[in-house]
Design brief:
It is built from two helices and six strands. It has helices spanning about 15-25, 120-135; strands at about 5-10, 40-45, 50-60, 65-75, 90-100, 100-110. A six-stranded antiparallel beta sheet has the order 1-6-5-4-3-2, with helices on one face.
């Protein structure tokens, strides 16, 4: 069972990358109801329809690691049977910095090819991390969901 994994490299500090993930998700992923400033903070995604996820910060090690657990999942699609597939999965962002460059690695723990939503979610993360987050950190503006 292999979890979804992707990495990007940007010309920003680890502090800047950490801030983008904990406080600026609306600028590169989708509108969020909150930020992740301390363990226990929760934020809800807004994809403009009935689908949403709520994440809780379970580990914050500034500026090198963020781990968020999906504590509510309501993913609705004609191609999915279980709206709670993401429930209990975790987003782990690891940030390393070297020579004025930061590498951000996202492991979506629990998002595996066995899940019905895997192909849709993989395509989404490929866009939101490799394109949108990278462009946001490069200063040219992210491409978040705008429903």
């Amino acid at each position: 069972m292999s979890n979804y994994l992707t990495s990007i490299c940007c010309s920003v500090s680890a502090e800047r990358a950490y801030k983008a993930i904990t406080q600026e998700m609306s600028a590169w992923w989708t509108p969020m109801s909150g930020r992740f400033e301390k363990v226990g903070d929760r934020a809800k995604t807004n994809f403009g329809g009935v689908s949403y996820w709520v994440f809780e910060a379970v580990s914050l090690s500034k500026p090198h690691m963020i781990e968020l657990e999906c504590c509510k999942s309501h993913m609705v699609s004609d191609s999915l049977d279980d709206p709670e597939e993401w429930l209990g999965t975790r987003l782990r962002f690891e940030i390393t910095e070297q020579d004025d460059q930061s590498t951000i690695t996202l492991t979506h723990i629990g998002l595996t090819p066995e899940l019905q939503c895997y192909d849709i979610c993989k395509a989404g993360w490929d866009h939101y991390i490799a394109s949108s987050l990278k462009q946001h950190l490069d200063g040219v503006g992210g491409r978040p969901n705008s429903y």
